[in-house]
Write a structure and sequence with these properties.
Length: 405
């Protein structure tokens, strides 16, 4: 991995390493927010649900705004503003006591994520040669999972020292991340559309372009279907395990750690193999493995069966999720790259539909029917992936014809 990193621009390397830092810090604090609000602030469950739920809601619809802003005012300014605001938000979490304050803070937290993440992905693509972009998005996904593996353990440790210490530490990590990026931009000054404002880009133009891009819409629809299925891992799977497997809560905790660690290990080993696969084949293979894993969840009755099913899903995850960035990079016009990465955030609509749909199916028909139907939902994404790939190839044919002339 170190040898691979040396081939990238220093700012790209800092973004990859910063992803580990930021995700570890976020996972150190945010998974424990519900416990903090319940035990320390004594909030009722419905209020906790509103506070927790506002962040992904704001993130879903804010990603397009953030991506477009990065094309209008420049990547650098938006990333700096998001990181500084993030630091203030987590200091606010540590000091707040009123429900409205937590609600507003978590809403801003979601906006910061939706502004920073598509912008950082667009910047990685800006500064990375085309033949290395599959690798850089694979490494970014690995970095996310390293942070997700380490963060909860650190959060559990620091939480025993002080209830709000994790929020202060997270605020400090985001501020350090800001200082590192600011220093690197001073050392490696650049002027390009990727970093400075593109005056011809407006929200109206951006919205008009993406709504006419049929390939993008197909890929977003496919992503929504995949996320409907993937949302079950955090929503209905723990309920099924708790009710049907001895020590189901312990098994669920193990499955989450197993998933993150397996992604980290296999991503590095499979990176070169996935680079050689055509995009459509990688997506279809990943969606097939997702579906097979969900069927496994539906028929499993032991620890080992659930672990094996999670392994299959994790391998599918490795093929599908990193390819999202590669697809958007290939679809996006240079002046609207941030907009496209932001629009890709609409896939998270599936993360809202998934828990409620899964909860209904679980209550009405039980876990077996639930997961088999989720396998069918994810399998149907293959139709949209194929349609999106067909439209993407159609868009690229005129460009090839021009180059041939």
């Amino acid at each position: 991995m170190l040898k691979t990193l040396k081939g990238f621009h220093p700012i790209v390397i800092s973004l990859l390493l910063g992803t580990v830092m930021a995700r570890a810090a976020s996972f150190m604090a945010m998974p424990f927010l519900a416990i903090y609000l319940s035990k320390t602030q004594s909030f009722p469950p419905i209020l906790i649900g509103l506070v927790i739920g506002i962040s992904p809601l704001m993130s879903t619809f804010g990603s397009f705004i953030g991506g477009t802003l990065s094309d209008i005012i420049g990547r650098k300014r938006l990333m700096f503003a998001a990181l500084l605001t993030w630091s203030i938000v987590f200091i606010g979490f540590a000091l707040a006591s009123h429900p409205v304050a937590f609600f507003v803070l978590n809403a801003v937290n979601g906006l910061c994520r939706s502004f920073f993440e598509p912008t950082s992905q667009a910047l990685m693509a800006d500064l990375t040669p085309k033949d290395k972009r599959v690798r850089v998005f694979s490494l970014r996904y690995t970095a996310i999972n390293i942070g997700a593996s380490v963060g909860p353990l650190l959060g559990a440790y620091f939480g025993t020292i002080s209830a709000n210490l994790t929020f202060f530490i997270t605020a400090g990590v985001y501020f350090i991340y800001f200082l590192i990026l600011a220093g690197l931009f001073l050392i490696f000054p650049m002027r390009s559309n990727s970093l400075d404002a593109e005056p011809r880009t407006t929200f109206r133009l951006a919205l008009a372009v993406i709504t006419r891009d049929v390939a993008l819409l197909y890929f977003i629809l496919a992503g929504i279907l995949v996320n409907i299925g993937y949302a079950q891992i955090e929503s209905t799977l723990p309920q099924v395990l708790k009710d049907s497997i001895p020590n189901g809560v312990v098994l669920y905790s193990f499955l989450l750690s197993f998933n993150a660690v397996t992604v980290v290990v296999l991503q590095v080993l499979m990176m070169r193999f996935s680079e050689r696969l055509p995009i459509l084949k990688a997506l279809l293979l990943g969606a097939s493995l997702f579906s097979l894993g969900y069927i496994g969840f539906g028929v499993s009755g032991s620890w080992w069966a659930f672990i094996a099913s999670m392994f299959v899903i994790t391998v599918g995850e490795i093929f599908v999720f990193p390819m999202g960035g590669v697809i958007i990079d290939r679809l996006a016009p240079e002046a609207l790259r941030g907009t496209y990465f932001g629009a890709n955030g609409f896939r998270s609509i599936g993360s809202f539909i998934g828990p409620s749909l899964g909860g209904f199916l679980l209550e009405e028909w039980g876990g077996t029917v639930l997961f088999i139907l989720m396998a069918a939902v994810v399998m149907s994404s293959m139709l949209f992936y194929a349609a999106g790939n067909r439209e993407m190839m159609r868009k690229r044919r005129p460009q090839r014809a021009l180059l041939a002339k």
